[in-house]
Design goal:
It contains 1 helix and no strands. It is mainly α and about 80 residues long.
Length: about 80
Amino acid sequence: MATPPIPQDDFTEITQLIAAARQRAVQAVNNALVELYWQVGQTISHQIKAMMGVCQPLLFLRMNWERAASHLFGHNPAVSTRY
């Protein structure tokens, strides 16, 4: 017994549903990636700011030490005179 051929129009709606679902999936993935990249950028920015907060006093101390040493010893300790 042969099955009758199925008209192509019967699958048009199914094909459109699949295409629409694929498009929504692509948009969802793109949105998730953009959000991820934003969060990574924020995290890196916060870490850099935190490191600068730690480094800032050290830089201040070094600059003041160099200034004080040049007045006390007549030279800048940041410039090495060793050969």
